[in-house]
Amino acid sequence: MKRIWLWFILIAIVGVGAYGAYLYSLSYMGDLHLAKGEYDQAIEAYTKAVKLPPKCAGIHMKRGLAYKGRGDVDQAIADFTRVIELDPDDARAYKERGVAYGKREEYESEIEDYRRAIELDPEYAVAYFNLGVAHARKQDYDRAIEDYTKAIELDPKYAKAYNNMGLVHARKESFDQAIADYTRAIELDPKYAKAYNNRGSVFLQQEEPDRAMEDYDKAIELDPELAMAYNNRGTIFLNRGQSARAIEEFTKAMDLDPEFAMATHNRGLALLEIGDPKQASWHFFSACGMGYAPACKKLEDAGDFELEM
After folding, report:
1. What SS3 class is residue 1?
2. Banded pLDDT at 13 (limits 50, 70, 90)
3. Mean pLDDT value across residues 257-264
4. Range name among 27-36, 62-71, 104-113, 233-242 with the lowest pLDDT average
């Protein structure tokens, strides 16, 4: 009889071990797919795992990240909410749900979640950074600067926080401070193409096109697919009267981002300069259709243009 009970115990132990191994393998496979950006496969593996007991907040978190990566915001919010139900003190779950709310343009819920994440983890630099983004989006620039400053205080090497603070200072027309912020971001991350592009834009606003061009050139060297840098470089060529070269730059920006309304409008301006009003009007029409107000204004002012379809 004793031997029979030992067999039952052994079978139970082996069964639990096999079950645990299966659950682990599903989670591990999901992790591999998630790391590769294979979101559908990751979601499939995590979904199998969450159906098994015990309920695990971590797997819901990872599935939420996969849904977020796939652009399925509603499902991501559902998973992050489930994490919070299972573990109400998980600061990252609030931060991630805040990001998802922001993508759904539910900005008050976004801000509320970032604040809750900070309450749970007062040293959560990324949560302060994201809160700064949310405040900047609402044009609450002073609070955004406070948030970015706190993020930098917690993480002095936070290059993105310096870059974003530069954006806010530029919008407040504090151009010297904006340049200082972008320069610090570049010092911390010498391969930060967007910071070079952003600093170049401030130089251009300060009527220093040569310094702006140097920064745009560097941004493109670091990131050949940065459409905004081509557009900005095209603007300098257009201002210099080099319309053909400007068209090349705007065309490259549009190739990289076909929905880039500003570049489409600017290419129209360059086409006007070389004497092609029909093609110019088509570009203004297209940019206006993307919601770019200056292009719509150009169409209103250009009564003699003919649109050729």
Report:
1. coil
2. very low
3. 97
4. 27-36
Which residues are CB-neighbours of 87 under 8 A, at least 6 positions away? 57, 93
Q: For residue range 281-300, what is the model confidence (pLDDT) as tens digits?
A: 999 999 999 999 999 998 88
Cα–Cα separations (whole angstroms), residue 127 to 67, 257, 289: 20, 30, 36
| Element at 75 (helix H, strand E) | helix 73-86
Torsion from C-alpha of 227, 231, 236, 240, nearest 10 degrees: 130
Cα separation, 156 vs 148, in Å, equals 11
Q: What DSSP line would sit under 203-225, residue for residue?
A: HHHTT-HHHHHHHHHHHHHH-TT
The separation between the first and the last C-alpha atoms of the chain, rounded to the nearest angstrom, is 91
Please give the domain boundaries of the chain with CATH numbers for all domains. Answer: 37-120 (1.25.40.10), 122-195 (1.25.40.10), 242-301 (1.25.40.10)
pTM as predicted: 0.87
- Contact between residue 96 and residue 113 where contact means Cβ atoms under 8 Å apart: no
Nearest CA among 247, 229, 230 for reference residue 238: 247
